[in-house]
Amino acid sequence: MDAERVDLLRACIAELPENDRNLFRHMHLFVEGRWREAGALLGLPESTIRSRWKAAIERLRAAMRKKIEEIGDDFAP
Questions:
Q1: Is the dihedral of CA 11, 14, 17, 23 positive or negative?
Q2: What is the pLDDT along the chain (77 residues), one digit of tens a residue?
Q3: Which one of 20, 28, 37, 49 is least enclosed by Cβ atoms within 10 Å?
Q4: Where are the beta strands (DSSP E) in 1-77?
Q5: Rounded alpha-carbon distances, angstroms, from residue 43 to 31, 47, 50, 51
Q6: Distance in angstroms (rounded) separating the CA atoms of residues 29 and 77
Q7: Nearest alpha carbon to residue 39 among 29, 54, 31
Q8: Is the Cβ–Cβ distance between 29 and 38 less than 8 Å?
Q9: Are 24 and 13 in contact (CB under 8 A)?
Q10: From residue 6, how far is each of 2, 3, 12, 45, 66 by CA, in Å?
């Protein structure tokens, strides 16, 4: 991924609600499938963490699509 696209991704994450941004701060746990550890860190049940992560990813995808449409890029998140 080139630097412009990383910047776009960061900008989209920055526009998400605080709860979502907090999840993305701990993204390495989700990518590694460490749901229980993420739940303990954030003080939430594993099932809640999983559902919030899924919803946060969907909001990020929507934000990325919107930004990409605005700039006319052909990048598909």
A1: positive
A2: 588 888 999 999 999 999 999 999 999 999 899 999 999 999 999 999 999 999 999 999 999 999 888 887 565 54
A3: 28
A4: none
A5: 19, 12, 13, 14
A6: 21
A7: 29
A8: yes
A9: yes
A10: 6, 5, 10, 31, 16
| First vs last C-alpha separation in the chain | 11
Domain 3-71 architecture: Orthogonal Bundle (1.10)
What does R_g of the chain's alpha carbons equal in angstroms?
13
Q: Which H helix or E strand runs over 2?
A: none
**Encoded tokens for 59:** 């909001």
- CA-nearest of 36, 59, 58, 60 to 48 is 36
According to DSSP, residue 42 is labeled H
